[in-house]
Amino acid sequence: MFFINDNIKTFDGDGELRLTIMATLAQDESRKTSIRVKSGQQTSMDNGVFYGNGNILGYDRVGKDMVINPEQAKTVKMMFDMYLNGYGLQAIKYELEKQHRKTAMGKEKWFCSVISKTLQNTFYCGIITYHKQYTPDYLTQVKVPNHGEIEKTQTPGRHEPIISVEDFEKVQQMLNAKRRTMKNLNTWENKGVNPTKILWCKLMVCECGNHFVRRVWSRTDGITSFGYYCFTSSNLGTEKTRKNKGLSLKGICKTPMIPEWKLKMMAKLIFKNYIMDSKEILSIARMYLEKHINDKIDIEDNTEIIQGKEYEVEKVKRLINNYIEMRAEGDISKEVFREKTSELEERLARLENEIEELNKQEEERNADDGWELHFEDLKTTLDSYVDFGDDLDVPESIVEGFIEKIVVGQNSFDWYLRIKSSDKKVEEAQKLASFTINIEQAKEYLYKFSTRKRVHKWHDITVNLWF
């Protein structure tokens, strides 16, 4: 490579050495700059200089100062007073929404995490805390949460406090008494969320787009049964809860909580009536998919066009190399070199994009859909299925192996059958079956397979099976 501005040629004897030395000097300069910047920031922190955009609930930024916003300050005081009086985060959230108190962003929807962070913010008692995040590597410049790796700096601010120091410390004691110690609290490298191991949480997706969380449904005779409800309901409250508290229902998910026995019943009916008969399901799948096996997009042969454009690409590359040699010898100026090569590089990029698109069309034209292989994959999976008997629930491993996802609505469930294929045509799902589960079927299932013998608030459920 030839670096024109620095006059370094990596194909010369000392080119690589000069390049390495310059890179090392540049990195060391970055290190020194980082030290100078951090030193200046620390001086500002010691003097109580406020960092950030100033969007803090309870304050307005006026120039360089933070001035109390009376209306928002009432919201902050309300949070601290309610928590000191024994209210939990969820109860505070509902009360804030009931009184139409707004967040720092001007919204009326509150979250427990936002309330928790507000209660832990030392800014409200007149103290500014720095180094809540830090940058461990000056080269990558990636900020990570500070869990004690570096010392935090606390300085009295120049702003007027909303909460007294005594009340703030009492709140922290109450929060700490409820806080659990996490194993990876002091290791930011282990941050992240472990994927759920609960089958139905992995498979189910609400029609609002969120996943489901598991909660205890009932405890009878020492046996615990579980139910599942949408994360939106878990976070914002269910429709019934918000109605009882007189809160707005805008943006609330109306999907009800689902007991686990309903999901097991649907799996039982689906596997017994549709998946157990592999010949039938293959014949139905073939009926839907054979309609599209011979569908081909009418694409003309672009071989000659591609060859012509590839020849043009080589020609442009030769022109660019000629200009590089002319610049290296001093035959043309830097301005002329940049003008000529920029036009050629734009032309080269355009040609390469056109060739890439034409190659994709050729692959699509010559591709073999391979539907027979798709059916063989499904048939092999079905043949390897082990009969679980009429008196047992479908094992979770079998459900996970056959079912890709379950989309849940208010009165319907869409079960998507898993197939090993990346073909775009399979993404256009074809419905295989649709049936309704009524109260009589529910009672029959509960009698055979469940310890819970009562149908709780039953309504007919439509189940759709998709391929």
What does this structure look like?
This protein is α+β, with helices and mostly antiparallel strands. It folds into four domains: 2-44; 47-190, Alpha-Beta Complex (Hect, E3 ligase catalytic domain fold); 193-293 and 385-467, no CATH class; 303-366. The protein has helices at residues 15-46, 70-84, 89-98, 112-119, 165-178, 199-203, 231-236, 239-244, 260-275, 278-289, 303-328, 334-366, 371-383, 396-402, 424-427, 439-449; strands spanning 2-3, 8-9, 59-62, 65-68, 127-130, 133-134, 144-145, 153-156, 204-206, 212-220, 223-230, 258-259, 403-408, 412-417, 431-437, 461-466. Helix 11 runs antiparallel to helix 12 (334-366). The protein is flat. The two termini are 54 Å apart. The relative contact order is 0.08.
**In percent terms, what proportion of residues is strand?**
15-25%
Spatial strand sequence of the major β-sheet: 9-13-14-16-15
Number of strands: 16
> Helix tally?
16
- Provide the gyration radius in Å: 33 Å
**Shape descriptor:** flat
How does the major sheet shape up? Answer: 5 strands, mixed
State the helical fraction. 40-55%
Mean of pLDDT: 78
- The tally of domains stands at 4
What low-confidence regions span 5 or more consecutive residues with pLDDT below 50? Answer: 182-192, 421-427
Q: Which structural class do you get from the secondary structure elements?
A: alpha+beta
- N-C termini distance: 54 Å
